[in-house]
Write a structure and sequence with these properties.
The chain has one domain: MFS general substrate transporter like domains (Growth Hormone, Chain: A, Up-down Bundle). It is built from nine helices and two strands, in the order E-E-H-H-H-H-H-H-H-H-H. The protein has a two-stranded antiparallel ribbon with strand order 1-2. The protein starts with 5 loop residues before the first strand and ends with a helix.
Amino acid sequence: MSSPPVPSTTANGTTQSSTPNDSSSIRKGPSVNAVSGNDVEGQDRIRIEGELTRTSLERSLVFRLDCFLMAFGCISQIIKYLDQQNISQAYVSGMKEDLGLYGNELNFFSTYFQVGYCIMLIPSQVIMTYMRPSWWLPGLELIWGILTGLVATASNASQIYALRTFIGLCESSAWPGMMTLFMHWYTPTELAKRMGFYHSCQAVGAMMANALQTAVHQTLDGRHGLPGWRLVVKAFPRS
């Protein structure tokens, strides 16, 4: 309970009341106002205490986000980078000879993909503000998975050009869409480690791609009357 005001007399004879300092009214821990912008140590203390004083409900929420949102993003990232290698692997595994690709077709496959990616990059983020991301992102992954599977049925380079353009359109929202969700659901201190883990999945996918796709081609070449490169494309759809 705070002490009552103590009257004091000023030089002109008027009285003022002042309340003595009460140590019990001071908040424990460093005050945000007391920490200057250059006081890095004080800012670190605030963040650490914020982590330690989180409620059980907050901890439960973060755990569920890690189990569902983070897991979905990481698995999607690994499969996406597994599949991004398939066009090059298929090209050197029989696609070149099967479709008669003896020019710059492989470069154009990447070019058409990037064209579609750039066209839809910003619109896809705008659409996410009007449509639920839980529908938009999985829906795009399902569509580009189907389109990637259709590459295995292509009979000429022009068909692959068209499919690669639409695959780029659908894939454009994968990385920025997940980053948007992470930044909306995680605090800055929680976001740093999870962004690092999410980006590490790119390296995991790229590391696994060549070994897995080479094994698929070597063991399934000629199965069901299909050349190995078509099975490589079908084995790693973007979904």
